[in-house]
Design goal:
globular; 270 residues; 7-stranded mixed beta sheet; alpha+beta; 15 strands
Length: 270
């Protein structure tokens, strides 16, 4: 039997699905984070073919984002779930909304959409909303994964944040297998120093921190009649530090175009 210490080193190079298979084959222990990470992703994916393809071929690290993934992550540590697996989470996941981010700088991941659908757990798909309804109760938005859009448009931002204006996220490729929390300072909206979702406006820049990779930033916005985010008629602009751009800098805030104001959660013409 191979020493546990050696396996701990080996598992740094395996996906959490691969770690589970190896643990069962060679009788070594998984960490709690490895178990929780595997169960969370296993609730959505039957296998990790598309996930590993995204990482190895497209240099894309898929991320799950949801308002309170911590609740489900911690629940995965219970003895019952450890023994019987993700099926015990079905009642817990019911009604949960998540977004699958796939920040694809080359734009080629969308060509492997068929493989994504093949790897998902049993589901139905709404092509108009880009939402997958899994039988375990999770609704998953996969728009970025199947379109490689740079900025993500959602009908509403509300399902992504809790009442304290926080959200949680989990990278597929993470040597620590950790669930991470995006605090208020990582959610860049129109108004600063607020904890109310309606005060951040119809657009946010979400900062995602990975332990060994770059800081990712994802712009997410909801459509509004007077709100135009892109193009020469844009009603709002991103603010960067001097000399920085979206490709080589972090968004610091937002500035409204002259003639526009932010009232009651909406960008309006004055």
């Amino acid at each position: 039997m191979v020493a546990q210490e050696l396996w701990d080193n080996v598992t740094q190079y395996l996906s959490s699905f691969g770690v589970k298979n190896a643990a069962e084959a060679f009788c070594f222990r998984r960490t709690e984070n490895q178990i929780c990470h595997e169960l969370l992703w296993r609730a959505i994916f039957k296998n990790d073919n598309w996930l590993e393809l995204a990482v190895s071929l497209h240099d894309v690290n898929p991320v799950l984002v949801g308002s309170d993934l911590k609740k489900y992550y911690n629940y995965s540590k219970s003895p019952t779930v450890k023994k019987h697996g993700y099926a015990d989470l079905k009642t817990l996941y019911n009604g949960m909304y998540m977004v699958l981010l796939a920040i694809d700088f080359n734009g080629d991941l969308r060509y492997d959409a068929v493989k994504l659908f093949q790897d998902l757990q049993e589901h139905t798909y709404n092509s108009e909303t880009f939402e997958v309804s899994l039988t375990c109760g999770i609704t998953l938005n996969i728009k970025q994964a199947v379109t490689s859009c740079e900025d993500l448009e959602l009908k509403t931002l509300r399902p992504l944040f809790n009442e304290n204006l926080r959200t949680t996220y989990c990278f597929w490729d993470d040597p620590k297998n950790r669930l991470r929390v995006a605090e208020r300072q990582s959610i860049i909206g129109i108004m600063e120093n607020t904890t109310r979702l309606e005060d951040i406006g119809p657009i946010v820049c979400l900062r995602l921190y990975h332990p060994t990779q770059r800081v990712y930033q994802q712009i997410i916005f909801e459509p509004q009649e007077s709100f135009i985010y892109q193009g020469p008629s844009a009603s709002i602009f991103a603010i960067y530090k001097d000399g920085e751009t979206y490709s080589h800098g972090l968004i610091q805030g937002w500035q409204l175009r002259n003639g526009y104001a932010f009232r009651n959660g909406k960008v309006e013409r004055q």
